[in-house]
Amino acid sequence: MLLGKVIGTLVATRKEPTVEGLKLLVVRACDVKATGLAETGSIVVAADAVGAGLGEVVLVCAGSSARQTQMTQNRPVDATIMAIVDEVAEGGELRYRKDG
């Protein structure tokens, strides 16, 4: 799984019928640093299975695992947002906490 931050949306008016109805979000990968989460620059377009929004930190699965949610099963997706992150701790120290 990949830890990332939603930085945008993707709109495609013409697409394969099996991806109709999927909300597509642009996610930039993040690393856990001593000062919190740092955006690393790697970007992926992911189908949103959990109702994520702009600016949220999320977990993204890729490859065949991306097609194992109820929303993406048997659809041609390679990345899916599977969770919205509330907290990240490393070595017992809190690195990120979602604002209220």
Broad structural category: mainly beta
**Euclidean distance between termini CA atoms:** 25 Å
Named CATH topology = OB fold (Dihydrolipoamide Acetyltransferase, E2P)
Biggest sheet strand line-up: 1-2-3-5-4
Report mean pLDDT, rounded to a whole number.
91
- Unreliable spans are none
Number of domains: 1
Annotation field: number of helices: 0
Percent helix? under 10%
Number of strands: 7
Order of helices and strands: EEEEEEE
Give me the CATH superfamily. EutN/Ccml
- At CATH's second level, what is the architecture? Beta Barrel
Beta percentage is over 45%
CATH class: Mainly Beta
Report the radius of gyration as a whole number of Å: 14 Å
Q: How does the overall form come out from the CA principal axes?
A: elongated
What do you see in this structure?
By secondary structure, this protein is mainly beta. The protein has one domain (2-97): OB fold (Dihydrolipoamide Acetyltransferase, E2P) (Beta Barrel), CATH 2.40.50. It is 0% helix and 53% strand. The chain is built from no helices and 7 strands. The strands form 2 sheets. It has a 5-stranded mixed barrel with strand order 1-2-3-5-4. 22% of the residues are buried.
Name its key features:
single chain, about 100 residues, mainly beta, OB fold (Dihydrolipoamide Acetyltransferase, E2P), two-stranded antiparallel ribbon, about 0% helix, elongated
Short structural summary:
This protein is an all-beta fold and 100 residues long.
